[in-house]
Every structure is written in C-alpha cells, then in structure tokens.
Write a structure and sequence with these properties.
Pfam family, one: RNase_J_C
Protein name: MBL fold hydrolase
InterPro entries: Metallo-B-lactamas (IPR001279), RibonucZ/Hydroxyglut_hydro (IPR036866), RMMBL (IPR011108), RNase_J (IPR004613), RNase_J_2 (IPR042173), RNase_J_b_CASP (IPR055132), RNase_J_C (IPR041636)
Keywords: Cytoplasm, Exonuclease, Hydrolase, Metal-binding, Nuclease, RNA-binding, Zinc
Number of helices: 16
Distance between the termini: 67 Å
Number of strands: 30
Shape: globular
Helix content: 25-40%
GO molecular function, one term: exonuclease activity
C-alpha cells in the first residue's frame, strides 16, 4: 500500500443492511470500525447468523491498530465473539457498548483476553496515524456515535447509525454543534448510513412515541398488556416503563436479552430509577389490569418470548382472550411472514394485536432524506461514501449527495478498495471479501461444499446407496437404496427396485480394472442413477454411495 494514500475498504455493510465491518488504511496501518453480524440469509438453510469474512485484514493483523465500535447493535458488534480470536486486536467503545460487549463475551472462553478500552462520550484518542474522536448521535440504542477520524491527509466523518432526535428520552441529543465544527475544520469524506434514504422527511422522535404509548395503554384498561420491541432500544424500554407506570401498571421483563440489556444499561448509569422491574413469574401474580409484560420477539423469532407466548408454550406467561399485544417495532425486511404468523396465532386466540401501522408507536433510528441533507449541510464533505445499505440504497444516497452539491460520490461494495486521498477519490482495487456462516459451532464460507450440498438436499433431496462387492467386483446382494426425502414409505420398495436394477446393469458393464477401483465404481453408480431419477422424479438429488468390499 502506498504510504501517502488514505484508503477505505468495507468488508461488510456495503451492499446489504447488516454485518458492518469497515477498514481505514494509511501508511501501512489499519483501523477497523465495527464488526457485526446479520441474521439468516436466503440460500443458507440451517444457518441463523452470518458475518463478513475478515481474511483481508487477518492477513495484515500485525498492522491492525484496533477496532472502534460506533454502538452496541448486533450488526455492529455481534461478530466479535466469533472473529476476535482471528485478529486479537484492542477494542475501543463508549461505556454502554463496552458493558454490553463484556456481557456477550462472558459466554466465551476467552473473555479475559480481550482488551476493551472504555472511551467516554465525546472522547478523543490516537491509534498510530489515526486521531479518533467520538461524536454523540441519536439512534435506537444508547450511546450511538459518529467518528471523526483525522488522518495526515484529511478528516473523515464515519456516521455509524444515526438520526437527529431533539427528544431522545434517554441519553444526549445529537451533537449538532460538533458536526458543524467538523464542517468548519474541513471534511474530506463523509461515510454515511443509507438505510432510510428512500424515506422522505425526518426520522420521528422517541418523545412522541412515549406520549403515544401512554395514551394507548390508557385506552386499554382491561386485561394484560404485552408489548414487543427491540431489547437494545433502551429509550423505548424506558418509555414503555413510564407509560405503564402512568397507567398504574407494573412491568415484568420476559426474555433473556431484556435482562442482559437492562443490566448493561444500569451498570453505566441508565434505568437506575426503575429498580422494581418484575420477573415474568412474579408479574403473572399481579392482577391482569395492573401488569404489563415487556417482551422480546418483535420480529417473530421462533425462540423469543412473544412467539412462545403466542403458541401457548411459555413456561411462565399466559395471555387470555381480551388481552392486548402491542408491536412497537418496524418489520425488518424478510421477517414479515414470521411476524404475521405470530400475530395470526394471537388473533385466533381472541387477543387484540396493535402494530405501528395502527398507532404511531414506533419511529426509525435512521435518517430520512431531510436528515441526510442536513448532515451534508453541517459537515460539507468533499466526498460522499454511502454505506449501510443495499446497492439501491447506496446509489440513491449518492444521487442525493450529488443533488446537494457534494463534489464527489463513490459507491462501494464489500471488498472495494477506495482511495480517498490524494487526488480525486476512486476505486483502485478489490480486496478479498465474502460471507461466513455460523453453522452450529463452526464458521463456513458461504460457498463451502457443506452449504452447497445442503441447498441441493433442500431442493432435490438425497439418495443413499449401499453396494456390496466381493474381491472380484461382483455384487453379492442387491443394492440397498434409501431416499426418505424423495419417496413415501408405502411405495419405496416398488420404485427403488427399478433404480437397483439400473445400478446392477451399470456395475456389470465395468471393465476388469474399473470394477476393482472404488472411485470408478462410485462414479459409475452415480451416473447410472442420475438420468432415471431425473426422468421419474424430475429431481437431481445428492447421491451418496457407500461401497463395501467383502471376501467370500
């Protein structure tokens, strides 16, 4: 890498929403911003979590100065328990993100090895050639930060996830004065959140949501109320708690992640005014019209609290006809069916369901177009790099930036190597990038044989064949075939006899040398089955052959 060039290399979060991982490079030194996950992905059956492949920076880990976290959402720090041991770099975060991360790492066997440096809100520190300053923003979590990254060639503002909210309910409002000061200092590049670029106007305020929740609870004085929201949205948790108290309801927490978040928040000084939150078991002892359950599961997650309540198999919490369930969260694209399934279960049981489509009880944590334009006006960057979005989001924000007179726009994708300085910004190369899938306890590349075979099995089934040959290459018994994903038990024997005959005929035609070669026999059996299986079933199953040789 040339010593006088400032580079930006996204490994995740540019081309998709989630699994953010970004690199800044200068003088053969690297700074990482965020290390997140995403949840599930089409074409990855059996996989719940995916994350960026860090191979590019892993090969340069002796040049990696540290990992700086913008905030504590899973798509910004959730990959640390899985990837940190491959990099072993120091981590820098504000108090809440540090406390939240420590709680997550406590479930690993290397928690004590991770050097986590707590940086106070608005703090500033130096890593090698990078001078980094935290800039307080608002978002749907405590202590979100933009980063002012000063390099020898210019100032970069990395927004993280953000919005402008004059009444965030908890924590400080966005530091507009600091953003303007950075603009006066001269911003070389703005690397900016694109999530809501198609939304006109401004993001709403948590203050309005708080008022609307209190009004909504007052309109439903009878029966139990359960409300689902993102556990990490501590401002929303506080609004729910206060709205419940205003309506003479106590609050019970239902869901492990709610306990984790509230403990992390209290550890750094938030939610300390609410010491009497109940467990789910204790809350069930409270009269119905005096209790509110704060639940996980706003996205229809099958193992989350609300899903189990809807199915009637939660060990502690029960809802009855006439009770009310409130969804105070947006539907993440891809989760609509799961959410609809849970809502339908509740409605069938006579439980009233209220969503953000029915009442103004949710606002986004990301900037609308008016907010983006205001950010451009405050920071006045020379270069706009849209990130945190699908390609359509990135292109739309680039167009908005051009409309707002930002001189240069560069649209990245995962692995793009972008030179920010000197000269005009441009793509100068491609770094290794990809997706790792968490499969049980192991990480697999997205294109691993295991994943490819699993996809094939999902769509085409699998056929197991056992063939027993003697030392002369003669079959000593009929082939045994099992294809439970292709046939019903009632007609297995009839249909499989045909395929067994095909195998026998093909093996009989093998030459003297071929029949003694295991790999040649296995290949011949697969070839013998492919066409008849396709003709009879219209499928191309994975064919697994077990070859046994015996001496007679």
């Amino acid at each position: 890498m040339p010593k006088d060039e400032v580079l930006f290399v996204p490994l995740g979060g540019s081309g998709e929403i989630g699994m953010n991982m970004n690199l800044y490079g200068y003088d053969d030194q690297w700074l990482m911003v965020d290390m997140g996950v995403s949840f599930g992905e089409e074409g990855l059956p059996g996989v719940d979590v995916v994350m960026p492949d860090p191979t590019f920076i892993e090969e340069r880990k002796d040049k990696l100065l540290g990992l700086v976290l913008t905030h504590a959402h899973e798509d910004h720090l959730g990959a640390i328990p899985y990837l940190w041991k491959r990099l072993k770099c120091p981590i820098y975060a504000t108090p809440f993100a540090a406390a939240f991360l420590k709680a997550k790492l406590s479930e690993t066997d290397f928690a004590d090895e991770v050097p986590i440096h707590v940086i106070e809100l608005g703090g500033r520190f130096t890593l090698g050639c990078f001078d980094i300053e935290f800039v307080t923003m608002t978002h749907s979590i405590l202590e979100p930060n933009a980063l002012a990254i000063r390099t020898p060639k210019g100032l970069i503002v990395h927004t993280g996830d953000w919005k402008f909210d004059p009444d965030p309910q908890i924590g400080e409002a966005s530091d507009v004065k600091k953003l303007e000061e950075l603009g006066d200092e001269g911003v070389m590049a703005l690397v900016c959140d694109s999530t809501n670029v198609f939304s006109e106007g401004q993001a709403g305020s948590e203050g309005d949501v708080a008022k609307n929740l209190s009004k909504l609870f007052a309109e439903h004085p009878q029966g139990r109320i359960a409300i689902a929201c993102f556990a990490t949205n501590v401002a929303r948790l506080q609004s729910v708690i206060e709205a419940a108290h205003e309506n003479n309801r106590c609050v019970g927490l239902v869901g492990r992640s709610l306990y984790r978040v509230t403990e992390a928040a209290r550890e750094v000084g938030y939610l300390t005014s609410y010491p009497n939150l109940l467990t789910d078991q204790d809350a069930m002892e409270v009269p119905k019209d005096q209790v509110l359950f704060l639940c996980t599961g706003s996205q229809g997650e099958p193992r989350a609290a609300l899903s189990r309540i809807a199915k009637g198999d939660h060990p502690m919490v029960e809802l009855d006809p006439g009770d009310t369930v409130v969804f105070s969260a947006r539907e993440i694209p891809g989760n609509e069916k799961s959410i609809g399934y849970i809502q339908n279960l509740l409605i069938r049981r006579g439980i009233k369901v209220i969503t953000a489509r029915d009442e103004p009880i949710h606002v986004s944590g990301h900037p609308g177009r008016q907010d983006l334009a205001r950010m451009y006006q405050l920071t006045r960057p020379k270069i706009l790099i849209p990130v945190h979005g699908e390609t359509r989001h990135l292109c739309e924000q680039a167009a908005l930036g051009a409309e707002c007179q930002i001189p240069e726009q560069v649209i990245p994708h995962d692995g793009t190597v972008i030179r920010l300085s000197p000269g005009n910004s441009q793509v100068i190369g491609v770094a290794e990038a990809g997706i790792l899938a968490l499969d049980g306890g192991r990480l697999l590349k997205r294109d691993a044989n295991t994943i490819r075979n699993r996809n094939r099995i999902v769509w085409n089934g699998v056929m197991f064949v056992t063939v027993v040959l003697n030392q002369f290459g003669e079959m000593v018994k009929d082939p045994m075939i099992s294809a439970p994903s292709l046939f019903d038990e009632a007609d297995d024997d009839v249909r499989l006899d045909h395929f067994a005959a095909e195998i026998g005929n093909r093996v009989d035609r093998l030459g003297d040398e071929e029949v003694l070669d295991d790999s040649a026999v296995i290949l011949a059996i697969r070839q013998a089955l492919r066409r008849p299986v396709r003709q009879r079933l219209g499928k191309r199953p994975l064919i697994e052959v077990h070859l046994v040789r015996v001496k007679e």
